[in-house]
Amino acid sequence: MILNEKNLSAIGASLPIPKYKRSTLKTGIVHIGVGGFHRSHQAFYLHRLIQENTESDWGICGVGLREADRNMFNVLNRQDGLYTLITQHPNGTTENEIIGSISEYLLAVDTPQEVIEKMAHPNTKIVSLTITEGGYNFNATTGEFNFENPDVRHELAHPEEPKTVYGYLTSALRKRRSNSLPPFTIMSCDNIQHNGTIARKMLLAFAKKQDSELADWIEKEVAFPNSMVDRITPVTTQEVISDLKDVHNLEDQWPVVCEPFIQWVVEDNFSNGRPPLEKVGVQFVSDVTPYEKMKIRLLNAGHSVLGIPGAIHGHLTINDCINDKVFAVFMRHFMDEEVTPILGEIEGIDIEKYKDTLTERFSNPNIKDGVSRICSESSAKLPKFLIPTIEENLKTRGQIKCATFILAAWCYYSDMGKNENGLSLEIIDSQKEQLQKAANRTEANWTAFLNLQDIFGKLTDSQRFVSEYTTAVQLIYKRKNIRALMKELLGSSF
Ligand code: CS2
Questions:
Q1: Which of 37, 40, 223, 401 is disulfide-compatible with 258, CB 3.0–4.6 A?
Q2: Is the dihedral of CA 359, 365, 371, 377 positive or negative?
Q3: Which residues are near ligand 1 (CB < 6 Å)?
Q4: Which domains does the chain have, with CATH numbers?
Q5: 334: CA distance to ligand 1 center in Å?
Q6: What pLDDT, in 10s, does the model give residues 379-438?
Q7: Are 284 and 345 a contacting pair, CB within 8 Å?
Q8: pLDDT per residue over 368-379, tens digit each?
Q9: Contacts of 179 (CB under 8 A, 6+ apart)
């Protein structure tokens, strides 16, 4: 049976379906970047809220900005925005639920004006974003907006033809302003520390170039709450799609798999009202900084610390990595010695327990989170997840050996094109060519990879870092046994 509105009540005989009338939902949120994560996290919270508290003003209109979003557009249109959320518990129990909070989906490349109209509609109170770390369009070294981006250049020259998130946001905000409507809140849900502050800084830089009066209005009127978002959501496999068909006779072309854990901490700072998400477990706080730092520097960095050497060694999933004692001890050492000292006290949080929970979550055998997902877009992730930790430790003379080793391993990963079993490794990264080009020069110049200024920024000014990196990269290339080196690096911990 195809998952769609028409078949919903029949599907309801075997699976939980939305209990609310989806046709009466108003769109209160426009969300840019509907992928697995948005659907396991924000859309799930909204679904719960609508279901349990009859909050019908907070339906979601999903938006895809890129041609690459066409597949999501086709699937969600075919399925009337419905999809199955599959929660995988560590003990093997599976919960399936049909989520109904995405009531519309627009593909901006086809209907740009419709997207702008939707954002400018009086019912829209929030525009939320999961556009990935790379989508914010800043230079990692300077932290400034990248005006060299050809899409940005295009939309600055032709404001009526937006391409990036900034072109759309300014067009819609301009419209709201001229219609005397209050602005929407811009709510970033990406894994970037101070995600709201960065979204604000980037949008203002863009808007100032385009229309300085509008920029002044945005500066005064638009709220950009910072937030910490968390739920591990692996890539959906064909196997998951087939299982739904075989076991539940349900044809869902793009279900979402996730872990049971979920967390969302948001600053209570909204320009035009917000859904009462505290009713479904969202934490509203005045300052999210300590939570986001903890999550990004431990969970997200922890993933990369496992995933990059894991891919080189030939582990396929995060669960495979954490079940390998060498990897587990290495990650914990990194967390204990390199991250915990710079986190300081976080009110209400027991960091030791938090780290234990991460090990447990990474060990969930039913999540099968591929190392390829973790390693993808490392050029945008590592400058946010890992490099700042090295920078802080350099200032305080803290330890940097594990994090530096991971950067050296990343160079090897980018260079080799295959793992230590000889199987090919696919690099999924918008900077793939630059990474490969720099990494390919390593054996002629051991620090060639560090010349990627946009990624490593000022790290290369530190002699201590460059020397630790050089030692690590030489060992990795010469020994060709990443696991043995990780073990040796930790010495007496084994
Ligand atoms: C992961 C995140 O992409 C990554 O590298 O660390 O997607 C992670 O699974 C989520 O942030 C969990 O909340």
A1: 40
A2: negative
A3: 191, 230-232, 300, 303, 374, 381
A4: 8-286 (3.40.50.720), 290-493 (1.10.1040.10)
A5: 18
A6: 999 999 999 999 999 999 999 999 999 999 999 999 999 999 999 999 999 999 999 999
A7: no
A8: 999 999 999 999
A9: 120
